[in-house]
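Review form for a predicted model. The reviewer records the input and the model, then writes brief findings.
Reviewer: anonymous (R2)
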Amino acid sequence: MVVRSIVADSAGKDCGARFTVRFPEVEAPWIADAPDGAQDTSHDSLDILVVDDNVDAAQTLRTLLETLGHRVRVFHRARDALDAMLAAPAQVAFLDIGLPDLTGHALAREIRARLGDRTGILAAVSGYGQPQDVLASQDAGLDYHLVKPLDPALLHEVLGRAAAARMARFP
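Model under review:
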C-alpha cells in the first residue's frame, strides 16, 4: 500500500519545481456500496445523454457512466442535445439546468413535447438544491433533481429505474 505523502523537489531558484502526491489505493465506495440490485451489469447497458456546458463535469459523468457499462453521448449545448434526442431518444438524459443557449428546464419541456411517450427518464443536474429549485424541475417535467456533486445512491436509483422501464417494455 502506498502511504499518503506530498514531496516537493526543485533544482534551485528559477528552475521550477516538481510536486508528487501519493494516496493509498482504495475501492470506490459508490460502486462497492451500491444498493442491492442497483449494481450495473453489461446486460443493463443504457443509452444515456449528458448535457452540461461545463466540459469537465460532463466528461467526468461520462467516464463514470461508461465505467458502469453504459453508452453515453455528451453535448454542451441544449439545441445540439435536442437534435440528438429527436434523432435517437436516450433512455436517460442528465440535463444541466444552467445551459447557455436554453435552460435545462426549457430543454426538458421541449423533449417531452416532441417525444411524448418515447421520452426516457429526465434528470436535472444542478448546483442548486433548495425546495424551489426542485419544484421548478418537477414543473418542467423532470423525473429527478440531482444536486452536484451527484449522490451515488440517487444516481444508482435513476439508472435502476431506467433499466426497469426498459425491461418492462422489452422483457
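Findings: The domain at 29-169 is CATH 3.40.50.2300 (Rossmann fold).
Further findings: The helical segments are 29-32, 55-67, 78-87, 104-115, 131-139, 152-169.
Recommendation: see findings above.
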